[in-house]
């Protein structure tokens, strides 16, 4: 267990990069509206129950991964059933992320490159970052985090001259159901997937080994990670609207890339969109790494494999095959994302609530 301990700062970096990955570049829900910031706030409210449930499970089972929590809460039989469900969910989330990066790279850079080549290189990078455990993976995230955040702020600063404030008015023009629907979509691809991060949140350590301080650090990771992620997501999406405008952004599959490509500082600083591609790929490595690691942990727990890292490469190959079958164009990708926000809701709230109830019942029985 000690080998899997990570620092609160590293856990917060993993948390924030995980939340930023899918919504950073992709326009998944035609969310080019002037009231987009309201949708981001609503997404945090939608995700609050899931965040509290995950935090409570982490405090009840410090140092345990998602599937150990499930088995200890629900027993052997029902634990195995829920483990199968979450293995499928983790596979699904990872395959979607794999396909996102494939469509992005093929659309903006290499349209004639076969998707399997892009996915194979990407899968290899993910497996290498996971091979040596959570601690090494967390250090990788800690190293790339300052670079990604610095680039996001630099791009925002250089884009200031392109901002058109009229694109941000009027606020709350759309109806509330539409705003809430966009908020649900943002939540399903970011905050709602916190359930997959239980193993990383619960592995947060304290400087003196105190269990109480470790639990406080877990709370800080979730609280500050959610707040910083919400602000960054809101800033990126609002920047897209201010640069491209509502109608233009709705027609774009990758609005952040297009907005950044317009930055030109006196013909001296150009083609900054290349940096946007790099930070998008790095952040997606974090998300796919988490999904791949969770899937490997679940399979090893289900079949009692002692070394999950040995199945990373075969599992990555299977996910590549699955990703190639999900959808066949960027247009289908947006429709698929719209459907996923309702499918993912089952794994993000009802099932974690069932696990928490079982865990609390077992805790009360032990106390009696």
List keywords for this structure.
368 residues; Amino acid/polyamine transporter I; 0% strand
Structure description:
The chain is mostly helical and 368 residues long. It has a single domain, classed as Amino acid/polyamine transporter I (Up-down Bundle). The chain is 73% helix and 0% strand. It has 14 helices and no strands.
Briefly characterize the structure.
This protein is mainly α. The chain has 14 helices and no strands. Helix content is 73%, strand content 0%.
Query: Which class of secondary structure composition applies to the elements?
Result: mainly alpha
CATH fold category name: Amino acid/polyamine transporter I
Q: How many helices?
A: 14
Number of strands: 0
Task: Kindly state the percentage of residues in helix.
Answer: over 70%
- The CATH class designation is Mainly Alpha
Uncertain spans, ≥5 residues at pLDDT below 50?
none
When the domains are counted, the total is 1
Question: Quick one: biggest sheet?
Answer: none
Shape designation: globular
What is the average per-residue confidence, as pLDDT, rounded to a whole number? 83
What is the rounded distance between the termini? 28 Å
Instruction: Tell me the series of helices and strands, N- to C-terminal.
Output: HHHHHHHHHHHHHH
What's the CATH H-level homologous superfamily?
A: Amino acid/polyamine transporter I
How much of the sequence lies in strands comes to under 5%
Rg is 20 Å
- Any guess at the CATH architecture? Up-down Bundle
